[in-house]
Amino acid sequence: MDQTKIIAHRGSKGTHPENTLEAVKEAVRVRSDGIEIDVHLSLDKELIVIHDETIDRTTNGKGSIQNLTLAELKQFDAGSWYSPEYSNCRIPTLQEIFCFLEKVDYKGLVNIELKTDKFSYPGIEEKVVAFVAEKNWPFTVEYSSFNYQTLIQLKILDDTCKIALLFKEHGENKTFLNLNIPVNMWHPKLSWFKSISPFQVPELPVRVWTINKSEDLQFCFRKQVAGVITDYPQKALEMRDKWQN
Ligand code: G3P
Ligand code: MG
After folding, report:
1. Which residue in 9, 16, 40, 187 is the catalytic one?
2. d(CA 107, CA 190)
3. Does the annotation count 51 as an active-site position?
4. pLDDT tens per residue, range 137-195
5. Ramachandran assignment for 117, one of left (phi > 0), alpha (psi -120 to 50 degrees), beta (any other)
6. Could you tell me which of 207, 144, 139 has the C-alpha nearest to residue 177?
7. pLDDT tens for residues 65-85?
């Protein structure tokens, strides 16, 4: 039996400031099978790792990523909002995260979520695919997005890339995906997974998000889902080893 993969959400959101290098370091330290990070495009077209469209919630600054340059974004403290001990954290670029993972020879999965559901960030798909193709990274890269035009575009740019269909609630919008575009994984919420009958479980790998509670982790391990995306990778790994060994 394949064990459920443990994918650290926004680095390790539950224990460190989300989507920072510190959070990603923690995900590596605890040996997460995968790491999920969110990507936007700055005013000067740099790939920026952050969840929201603005820096308001997770830094001491204000403004939209799309209206700020990388140099401007780097001025802000991206850790103190979480805890004063992280006041040196800065918003990372995708390049900084990848270089760190390369340095530590990370062999897991990196799930890049393209945050194009509110702003389309024209050209972001080309930039991401070109950046990933620059090197032979030691880890596997896969993409996800709530914006299916982004997923289609990624497959057009690189037909070997792996794409995950992200959906909320019952994912009615997934029927809008161009059926000629093969999807590789489904990334639904747990409520969807719980609502379907065993006969409706797709043949594609299902990775459920965001699974933090012990009872939900146990449920996913019992059902042997392909993966869980969690804010607490260390806890999830410890529980998995108890439930699936
Ligand atoms: O990829 C799962 C999850 O990250 C999707 O939602 O809002 O946390 O990016 P969000
Ligand atoms: Mg995400």
Report:
1. 9
2. 27
3. yes
4. 999 999 999 998 999 999 999 999 999 999 887 765 666 566 678 889 999 999 888 88
5. alpha
6. 144
7. 999 999 999 999 999 999 999
Pocket probe mutation, ligand 1, options 5, 165, 209, 225, max atoms within 8 Å of Cβ = 209
Cα–chain center distance at 153: 18
Q: Is residue 76 within 6 Å of ligand 1 at its C-beta? A: no
Q: What CATH code is assigned to 5-53+92-243?
A: 3.20.20.190
Q: Which two tokens stand for residue 26?
A: 């923690």
Number of alpha carbons in the 13 Å side-chain half-sphere of residue 71: 1
ipTM score of complex: 0.99
Half-sphere exposure of 96 (CA within 13 A, CB side): 21
Q: Quick one: which atom of ligand 1 is closest to the CA of 113? A: 1
Q: Where are the alpha helices (DSSP H) in 147-189?
A: 148-157
Ligand 1: atom nearest CA of 164 is 1
Tell the residue nearest (CA) to atom 2 of ligand 1. 209
Q: Is 229 in the pocket of ligand 1 (CB under 6 A)?
A: yes
- What single-letter DSSP state applies at residue 160? T
Q: How far is the CA of 79 from the centre of ligand 2 (A)?
A: 18
Q: Under a CB-based contact definition with an 8 Å cutoff, are residues 14 and 4 in contact? A: no
